[in-house]
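Collaborator request, handled under Task 6.
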Amino acid sequence: MNVRLRGIYTTALTQRVLDAGHDVVAASDPIRERFDADFGHDPHDVAVDTTSDRQGVGVTGDPDAVSRLVDHLDVSRDTFVWSSPAPRDAVFDARVTETLGSGAVCDLGDSEGFLPFGSVDAHVEVGDTLRVQVTEPAPPWIDRRPVLDGDIRVRAGPATLVRGESGVTVDTYDDEAGRELAGMTDLLGIEPPDGWGLRWEDAATDADMGALQTALERAVDRADAVSLDDAVDAPRSLATPLATTWLWFGREGRFELDADRRAVTTTMTGHHRIKAASSDASRAVDFVEALDSGDGDDFPFEAVTDTFGPVAGDHVRLAHGKPDGRLIILGRAEVTERDPEGSLTLRREMTPGGSYDALDARRERGDVAITTVREGRWWYPTVYRDDEGNRKGTYVNVCTPVECFPDAVRYVDLHVDVVKERDGTVRRVDDDELDAAVDAGHVSEALAERARAVASSLEDAL
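Structure tokens returned to the collaborator:
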């Protein structure tokens, strides 16, 4: 298959794609310089794009091709994979359930989407039904709905078919090249389906006849698969010409990708871990590697946090991921201490009401939670104390290896945990939730075995 890759994981994933026997197309200049390979300009079957928060990638394209490619990109036991219920270019009959300042929330059936008011001609109110298409799918761990549009299109490389239009247009500033391409389109001998117009992207002006023919053939096939009647019956899914699958990389996964990248070019220890933090961190990594300073086996925790944070006095979110793709923010905590070896001490003031999860202790005014996280560790403890400093209980969370980013401590919760009551009683909890996650396919058996082993060690230690 032909694969196009973009973002901070591109070099490592290009290596994996080539090792799997697939072709990489539309490669960037740095990728062309790093690899001894023939990168063409043919239309891609699958696009791999880094998510906006740099925590993973979205894989979009032909459903069978996406499924096969994901197997090569699932890099470690702390990589999580989900198929999107609202993939790119999917068409839905939607029902408006809420209007916000800039758009409408739409019920798609198994998911929701966001329709900007500027994406439709008509006025939109709660209860309206309309036909929409997904233009920007959203990963499950980001608090954002997929973005919708009122126009229906199918894309294949530089060719886009737009429902309700006719003829051929070329999106280019070079008028002469555009006229030439419009004329060449007739020579391809491929007619768009009735009711669809063809738009060529600017890149098509540099493509050869073979690439143009392949792109247009694929676009026509996808348009034929989007069989739309005039009656809108919401909510329902009408067509999914493409599939989108999300991969959420954990700390082990990022270091696995470092090894793949290191086989190609200079790669410092923690390359992807640091780049995932922020654009400033990403630029700093590029600078270090440009100086060939990427040697060493230890992750430079002190240097990274000194430069980008967090340090004592900063505030971070506890980004508590769930194996089903949700991301829960447990609250903001103050960093009260940082150990150069890789630990942060976090302090949160607790709101009163209810009780602490799995502990025989009430949440009362003046309570504080003291959490100690260590970069790369598979667990972290939180000690709850009352307003006089007395310990009310300890909750030890078992999770994927912790990552301490400038604005958030991130991990994915693995359900099973260990608690220690005020009287010293130690209990292991939520094994059943871990078993259910394995049965549901959200947690691999290898990852579950690791979580159980960590929980057993914690029981013995406490």
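The cover message to the collaborator said: "The chain has four domains: 2-85+245-262, 91-152+228-241, 153-225, 300-461. The domain at 300-461 is CATH 2.40.380.10 (FomD barrel-like fold). Please let us know whether this matches your experimental observations."
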